[in-house]
Amino acid sequence: MKTDIEIAQEAVLEPITEVAGRLGISEDDLELYGKYKAKLSDTYLDKLQSNPNGKLILVTAINPTPAGEGKTTVTVGLGEAFGKLGKKAVIALREPSLGPCFGIKGGAAGGGYAQVVPMEDLNLHFTGDFHAITAANNLLAALLDNHIHQGNALGIDTRQVVWKRCVDMNDRALRNVVVGMGSKTDGFVREDHFVITVASEIMAILCLADDMKTLKEMLARIVVAYNYAGEPVTAGDLQAVGAMAALLKDAMKPNLIQTLEHTPALVHGGPFANIAHGCNSVRATKAALKMADYCITEAGFGADLGAEKFFDIKCRKTGLKPDAVVLVATIRALKYNGGVAKADLGTENLDALKKGIANLEKHIENLQKYGVPVVVALNAFVSDTDKEVAFVKEFCESKDCEFAVANVWGEGGAGGEELAQKVLATLECKESKFKPIYEDDLSLTEKIRAVAREIYGAGDVTFSPAATKQLAQLEKLGYGKLPVCMAKNQYSLSDDPTLLGRPTDFEINVREVYVSAGAGFVVVLTGAVMTMPGLPKEPAAYRIDVDDNGKIKGLF
CA-CA to 252 of 20 to 30 Å: which in 131, 197, 435, 495? Predict the structure, then answer.
């Protein structure tokens, strides 16, 4: 069986100018990064505004498990299937981070015959967007420390510096550091921290900004510290906005590449799906809606995190309204939720499937609460049996969901035609009545309870003394109307990753709350959420190499 990278490297790619040409995009509207990658120019994005919007299709999934779900693979395969059916579709995805690529998770270009290419470029430096975000983040950190060193005219309390440096790599040694060591000229000594670049607020801002004007307004609102009176100090106060925007100028432009079957794909931005909203850029999504009749996009992790944030943050802040949702599941993952060990998932087990399908049931119910029609996509594995598939199909249809088996990993677009037909039928006969799960006017505490109870199924929410104090302070500072961005583990509906299936009567424990004022949401930390991952004992980096001819191997 060929690996993902072998399949990708054997593919015959079309010049990106040809892929763009089928969408009516001239070469003058592209900024080329070699033969197979390009950015859409600002001029072209402006010209799109008079076009009508296509249909917006969100792909999400059940809670991730070691068994695998294949959300990105299904997203790519569905886009290819639309092409097979003669439909004009554009995929909108997030860019991968180098951290997981060299760590344990691997790349994020889909898999098998449902991949976006060039796969190696996408998973490594791509067009440099993440490097620009890293530079802008660290420029702000440097300006902050320089301001303190040069006299601290803003009265920054060095015990309340909240802006962190970043690097796009898993490096646990940087989680907690001390800066300013050495002589007096080396700066003020204080504790500092690093996050991975995808966790930077600048990543979230770039993915929520419509244009340069909006970007600069959002950058200016970033809270970097608090002064001795407890008032926020912003990037605007530090006069950092213009230089940061200059670094981000090109990174603001969506990237155009293709799938193995030459379906256009906009891959742009990639905020952390735990402490940020976990979606590709608004600019890319809105462009795709104007470029084609169908925009197929995805959200991070399971529907309780990714889809909830897509709906309650991205759609709320931008006016986007999804027309349908594809919910990805696998027989293997459902049996894992039913208590089957990973080594035994290939054996038919209807009892475990009946138990584990409660996780799928909760996600279906959650998505329907938003008023959006749901199609369940069963990502096929060779170990799936007819009885198991029939059971899941009957269950989904009893929940007023369309159902289809997708074999896009093995067959590409041809393996997704059944799913595409079900999505098209749903768009035709079911109207989306999308609405967020809570209103803006609720207090931050009430918004947190709404997500915990309605989406997670929690019995109650408890707040640490620190979180209670932080919530009161944020309300006092005028941030109470912002949406909440729940930072929770992805493996369970609860904040305990060991509680699989559909746990009930549990408590969500809020330990810390802080504002991402630039991005425009309040981050709510539950459980142990890591913003700077570490490498495993045997990182994926050990297997990555390049031969004498410059051919990369070992990516997956």
Answer: 435
